[in-house]
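hey so i finally got around to running the thing on that chain from the lab meeting. sorry it took forever, my laptop kept dying and i had to restart like 3 times. anyway pasting the input first so we r on the same page abt which one it is
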Amino acid sequence: MTSQELLRRIETYLDAVPKSAAEPETVGKFTLFKPLGPWPFYARPRLGLNAGINRADVDQLRARQRELKLRENIEWVLETTPSLAAAASESGLVVHRYPLLAIEGRDAARVAPPAGVEIRLVAADDPDFTRAHAVASVGFSAPGTQIGPQGAPERDARAEGTMPEVDQFMRERARLGLSISYAAFDASGPIAVGTYQPVRDVTEIVGVATLPSARRRGIAAALTSALLADALSRGVEVVFMGADSDDVARIYERAGFVRIGSAGAAEPLDVPSL
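ok and heres what got predicted. didnt touch it at all, straight out
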């Protein structure tokens, strides 16, 4: 498959996947996804858009987001909509660029977890479901790949503070097969987590996070490998993901992913980046 064909399939997926939990609204050259549950969403360039985007287009979108009291953020693939980065910046948004990686089934590699670590599916009725997903909250609050002090106590505190409506929403998505999660466990419980959300034969791996105290042991690469293997076993043909940085991208490259472009995100200055 050519890179152009691959990006086209990814764009179709990115337009479809939010619709299981959000209502789409066309706003000029954008599709704005209005959340139907507790998850926040974003806007994306309209699928198939072949016109450039300027500051006025972004200003129009942001005005609608403010009217609806939604976050003023935009996500897109830079190679597909190259004019958006400058337009978003001119509108006053901060533009972030992240490595975008993908893999086709035939290129899949298996990465084993380190000794003492087990990786398994976390189903909706798993007793560790809430604690496993709390790992992401802890991990993303300390971005990067550096080892840190945050570990099991912080994970368990975040799990106890999980809002019931969020936990119920996530479990229902797991029951319906809209979100499929794996976690890595050691004697303390879940120490890493990741999810993929299939739409027909394409999926994105999202939310891969490791407790800072468990980093630099190859756990994220092994977890990503397990997610990839599960997706391929269910008939998925293309798997892609974004990485926070080049260092994080190298972890995923160990599982066979290759860089195919850049993911863009734009948001106001006072909103923290990924």
